Amino acid sequence: MAAVNGKDLNEQPVPPSSLIRRVSSRSIRNSISEDKENGDVCPGKGSFVSKYKKAPEALKNFHMNDAESELEVPGTPMTPRTSTTPGHENCTFHHDLELDHRPPTREALLPDMANSYRLLLTGLGEDPERQGLLKTPERAAKAMLFFTKGYDQSLEEVLNNAIFDEDTDEMVVVKDIEMFSMCEHHLVPFYGKVSIGYLPQGKILGLSKLARIVEIFSRRLQVQERLTKQIAIAVTQAVRPAGVAVVIEGVHMCMVMRGVQKINSKTVTSTMLGVFRDDPKTREEFLNLVHSK
Questions:
Q1: Catalytic residue among 91, 186, 215, 285
Q2: Which residues pair with 181 in a beta bridge?
Q3: How far apart are CA 252 and CA 255, in angstroms?
Q4: What is the pLDDT of residues 207-232, one digit of tens each?
Q5: pTM: predicted TM-score of the whole model, two decimal places
Q6: Annotated catalytic residue: which of 89, 107, 184, 225?
Q7: pLDDT tens by residue, 103-116
Q8: Which of 180, 209, 262, 288 sits between 20 and 30 A of 27, alpha carbons compared?
Q9: Where does the UniProt annotation place the signal sequence (predicted)?
Q10: Is 254 a known active-site residue?
């Protein structure tokens, strides 16, 4: 499992009771009574209570296998990027003997990026020296750095200790968070709205931090499917809730401006972890809240 702030995620196991939080004590008593009436009191049977008592390990990780627990999934460089980061082994600013060496600031890359844009303009048949294009390469380079600023942001610095102890286990939902990102296939924008819900287990996250988590991962070259998963895993690593749900509705300019040119098409992706995956009623409650006006 991945670690956050130097701590192993397994240090704070999720108690099985938290994953059946929506089952009232009366329902549990009724279930036990029914088991007794039917002679089904053996833990090996399939009663509701015994099922959750005999499988705590499965509930601890609520379907998060090793791959899902990795915040930095393939295709997204780790931060800060080093010579050990896949794809950066041969970078000119890395040295094999300096594994903790960081790349230069992003602003230091502006001259080279501007020259690349100047070459691109020339390839398009334009004259980079004409008045309207004189400063375009530098502007475009600065814009691209801003569009992808998430590469140099980490979850820890963005959260800034805005995690609070609170005795609550009711659903928290922040919906319609505006999102702008760049399609990694065509380097054109896609944009939309993100809705996030989670069930706390004694810890809550500052509400603005949910929007900042969206910013970290959307401000990178992305695909919507990966972006959805990264946001859900980041919230999970931040406060270890009983479950996390993320829904993104996006419009992709690579479908609008080129290719099939379907201007009204939208792409909806979702990631459900924990209770939101296991409990249909909890998932339905979240989706109803997200889609309500």
A1: 186
A2: 190
A3: 6
A4: 999 999 999 999 999 999 999 999 99
A5: 0.67
A6: 184
A7: 567 778 899 999 99
A8: 288
A9: none
A10: yes
